[in-house]
Amino acid sequence: MPPSSLRVVYAFAREMHPKTSDVFIEYGTAGFRTKANLLEHVVYRMGLLAVIRSRVKNGRTIGMMITASHNLEPDNGVKLVDPDGEMLEESWESIATTLANVSDNDLEKTVQEIIATEKADMALKASVFIGMDTRYTSPRLAAAAANGVIALKGTPKEFGIVTTPMLHFFVKCRNDNTYGTPTEEGYYEKIVGAFKNIRKRLPARGDYNPRLYVDGANGVGGKKLKAIKKNLTELELELFNLGGVGEKLNLGCGADHVKVTQSPPKGITHPPFQRVASVDGDGDRIVYYYLDEQQKMYLLDGDRIATLIASYIQELLQACNATDISLGIVQTAYANGASTKYIQETLKVPVEFVKTGVKHLHHAAKTYDIGVYFEANGHGTVLYSDKAKKTINRISQEGDPTERKAAQLFLDFIDLTNETVGDAISDLFIVEAILCARGWSAVQWMELYDDLPCRQLKVTVKDRSVIKTTDAERICSEPEELQLKINELVAKYTNGRSFARPSGTEDIVRVYAEAETRQQADLLAAEVAQAVFDLAGGAGTRPELPAAPEL
Ligand code: G16
What we know:
By secondary structure, the protein is α/β, with parallel strands linked by helices. The protein has helices at about 5-15, 40-55, 95-100, 105-115, 140-150, 165-175, 185-200, 220-230, 255-260, 300-320, 335-345, 360-365, 385-400, 400-415, 425-440, 440-445, 480-490, 520-535, and strands at about 30-35, 60-65, 75-80, 125-130, 155-160, 210-215, 235-240, 275-280, 285-290, 295-300, 325-330, 350-355, 370-375, 380-385, 455-460, 470, 475-480, 495-500, 510-515. Bound molecules: 1,6-di-O-phosphono-alpha-D-glucopyranose.
């Protein structure tokens, strides 16, 4: 583009999407995330960056998702999606951060530096797909994103309200038409179509009950399931928290609430032992739970989903006689120690630990022929390499009758998987298909192993960046005295484990603890939270210590 037309771009930016705050904002665990009123200039600038990225990638489509996912309603965010439908390449996160924070006066210079450094051919076409969640601030931000794209003569395509994983899927399909059709209908056709195919092969049996209650977090996931339900006879969906008048997104409901508080969402009643799936605000996470007759809650989180899926994939690999396909599982520090033990000792599958953030898990999962990755919070999927797909495809045509049958079923499971990113809807159908295949109730699923009691707490500090971590966030390297204190506290408890890390999506420090009993896990978490408050510059109210358990 000639410099004169670029000048118009920057005049427009100053006029329409000015930088109104000096608060530093960083591309974090899942893009930029903060109060919605601080984001307009950021989103506009990410529109500019998406166009440059598209041109660096030879005009392939880039995605922009306007969402703050599990955060409460006043927050919002934006993240970029790379051409394969994956999270933005890590080396570009610092470029995005720089661009988001420069003054309006330095915007022109910075954009030109990025274009020169990244060797973007600005004469190429550029295409950007834009999606948004249901927040009332999302339409304004999506418009700012489109303005940014148009400013650098890219072509925006707005999908309106979609789940985050749908947007990832559309981007992948646009750049690789063998994966599917880049529309909402194309998504349903592939994912729901695969589920229907599986259910034709596997009618409900044993203790599997096709009735499923779903907590939609008052967000987009529930709305999309409502659309899916219209043509779904294989599953009896009872949908709750669909975002009616006065119902707030993620407030007291949704996957994050259920996982962190270990309590059921509001707005839903169900019989004992009824399976309930809880998705998050933008439909990229899912956890399950049920209550017994005494209302005791049993949580089936991301670790449980990962182990269920991996154990079933093992069965399918055996049935196909696909002996040369490697299978691995990727977890984070939040994985319950009992799940890791089960994976290593019972499944005998290699397990790897990485930092929080699906971008890290996704990357690690790619090193296996089949990589299952899940965060305990319910964010995850399965990646199938070309080798795995080709092998299973070949067996489906050339194997003996038993192998062929297993391989054909396996191919449907691959189709059922949104391989671009963790997807609550795809994961829901995968879990349901496996439970159905095994004839299992949620109770039987729960019986695979016993979790260690665990607790998560949030601590507010003045500046969370003072905490640095290492060893997949399991060790705190700064402040040094904090890790010494954590070691001292953990040593008091049987099977104790704890860590603290700064969140990349909220302005808080997260504390995780597990131990032999519920009371011990709660106390250890509270003690570590206090240590964080005392040694890392606590702000606001000091965390409260529960009554001491008998040790
Ligand atoms: C995002 C990321 C997840 C991460 C979560 C919490 O989820 O995609 O990988 O586990 O944030 O991250 P942190 O502990 O750094 O705040 P979501 O569902 O909010 O997009």
